[in-house]
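User: Can you fold this complex?
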Amino acid sequence: MARIQPQRSAWHFDPTTPVWIASAALLLVLILGPMYFLFQESFLLPKEQGGGWGLGNYIEAFTDPLYRAPIVWTLIISVSTSALSLVIGSIMAWAVARTDAPFPGLIRIGVLASFVTPPFLGATAWVFLAGPRQGWLNLLYRLITGAGEDSYLFNIFSMTGVVFAMVLYIYPLVFIVVNAGLNNISSEIEDAANIAGAGTLRTMATITLPLVMPALFAGLILAFLEAMILFGTPAFLAIPARQHVMTTQIRAFMQSQEYLVGLAAAYSLPMLLAAVWLLWVRRKALGRRGYATIGGKGGQRRPQRLGLYRWVLFGFCLVPLTCSIVLPYFALIAASLMKTQGYGLVRSNLTLENYRFVLQNDAVWPAIWNTLILATTTATAGALIASLIAYISQRRLVRGSQYLNFLATVPLAIPGIVLAVGLFAAYTHKPVILYGTLWIMLLAYLTKYLPVAYQTSNAALMSIHPELEESSRILGANRLTVFKDITIPLFKAALVASWILIFLPSLRELSSSVLLWTSDTKVITVVILHFYEEGRLEYVSVLGVLLMVLTMVIVALSYRIVGRDFMKA
Amino acid sequence: MKKLVSVSLYAALLAISAWAPAAAQSTLDLAKKEGKVVWYSSISLRVAQNICNLFNSKKLGVECVLHRDGSDKLFSRWRQEAKAGLHIADIIHTSEIGHFVNLQKEEALLKYRPSEADKIDPNFMDKGGFWAVVRASVYVPIYNTMRVKENEVPQSWVDFLDPKWKDGKLVHAHPAYSGFVSIGLAALVKQFGWEFFDKLAAQKPRIVQSAIDTTNFVVRGEALMSVGGTGYESFGAIKKGEPVKFIYPKEGIPFISSPQAILAKAPHPNAAKVFTDFTLTKEVQQIFANEGLYVGHPEVSYPKGLTPLKDLKLMVVPAEEAVKMNKPVEDNFRRKFGV
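Assistant: Here's the predicted assembly.
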């Protein structure tokens, strides 16, 4: 396929250009601001090394042998997690979007439910389930096999356990992105292959797969970066497995008495490099090929018939869902109903008192309210900005647009705890001090989640052929009108996907919120963490269940308002 | 003449009565003008809110504003703010003596002798006058009563090294994530030397992040015993009816203090003084005691089931020493325990 490149006329000044420039500028400020302060921090030396500026932090971070193993382990975990997430997420997305697998709605809801679960909550639940000594699954195993108290089937406190627990809450990311991508492929091409004699598998391998490559890559990159910067799961599961990863190491730096922020910032450098490398790899792999399948010639989406195999596929899809929602939420609900944690699931130990306490607690409702406001505002602003930026980048409307691609992905490579330091510094300058308001948290969430929406929009845009827009321009419309009347309608699924991809993670954001909240701007995850730190696992479980119920209510409402497209995306 | 004497006497009395309380009232008056006190505290939210609400109910004209977070996060929060030139906190209260030693070195604390200082046990007051230990606890192991028989319970710290407790039966928190644990370990190393430390590592206990995690693990039976956790958090679990009990090794248990100090750049210093006095009154100290914490006020009564401080053998690590030992403990933990 020929390279698609819209012509940029040197003579004609498009009056809507300022819009694009403004959007690009906004992105620059949003992302470069915190990055700059972080960068600056990494060059500031602690008092022990004499203060002032220097490379001391970088030298210590990468020459001390103690700090090398976490880097290696982070790499291993990220590669495994992203590979597994890619496989699981893509197969499930394909099952739902392109085949006649049964109950696609159920699968979608299940994936969304996994997506909205804070990973640390999932990890806590899995400790209840698969702790080697007292995990319920192991107790069941002992009951069935009659094995002794020291034997177990599952040990969540292992690197395998870490990868397992991570995949469960990262595969939804891949699902959503690939699903949006698959929805943009019209069936005609697959039909053509079938007519020419290719069977289902062959069609899938030679036609569908290449066309969905941009989405697959976007999903892989997102999964990799997410796995790399996750803190909660490794903190709960890797430390008992006696291995630091980079994020837990960073947290140890920041918790030290000397408050080693500079070292933490410097230590994050490999993550940034990993992001750069991944983007470069993607550009090489996807290169100059065209992926546009939505052309001006109409299109239709028809599911592939799988016969009896549809049930096998459905069974396959049920496994991740069972592991990410059914089992953990069973554990959480059980824990939320217990008077004491030590006596387990016995009749005399059950109570509704925990629910009563939480629902009447002063901190809970304002926190829920703050969470909802933040998530909605961030998602709306973010989806819009992400689409604009992706559009600018894809259609090369401003000089240097390709760098936007990198910029828009960079925040994904910075662990939340480190990013928050940059955000704090960036938005706490006189006379405008956003600290203590919801605004700083809005900016934090935007900076964190814009890249995710951007990746989706980018992948989706790759599949929309510019010829549709060009025809419109030939007829006299300016770029903004084109964007509004042509691109957006075609792009709707991706727009909605972007909204979801920002809204849902915002509900469960913790690592930045934990450094930026004040008593008026608490969000629900902070409240959950505080209960956890006080050892009140039953309240943690109640809030986990409530968060899930709340999210499902919101998803149901959105389904009503936005229509079928919401669930299709 | 008589009239002159009585009038001048009256005038003199008036002058004296006006002057004496005026000297004492000036702090409270200034505090009223400041209007509020911002309290950064690491005691559990429920307790902190209780105390704040109690203060507000006294209607002194000063409002208590609370920011509660874990010790380390509180400290980094304050650092961040100070770096950005924001001075919001008036009083800082954490469970890590190290914070206060460092803050004092940086001249970030205000020297203040609280009004109740004479009553308070001198062990609970900083000799230099920069902080007061409003509450304290102990680094004490617990065991799960459903899984450990009473005759198996260790009587000495050395009993924890018995091979029968190997491989995940014990749980231990990480000193890098918990100042409490760091000081507890420092005390044990001081008492038994680094070989104890090495042998404990060889037991391969389950490692968790912070002290509360050790309590949770033992409560649920995921570990049989902890090698030390926060006394008052474990007390909370016992009060709740969880199947755990304290272990009091015969060599004693480390004493961990939770200091509180007024910041030098506090925006409401007088309000801070008034509040500091408040936290050392019998009323508030009793609130701490009810949680299973130990306080310096002599008139407080402790809840049933909590062994009084005087009946406990304590291991005390002086503040400066605790701070110096922090890095060696963390580094050796890393090397010996593996994470």
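Residues 291 and 320 of chain B are 28 Å apart (CA to CA). Chain B has a mean pLDDT of 90.
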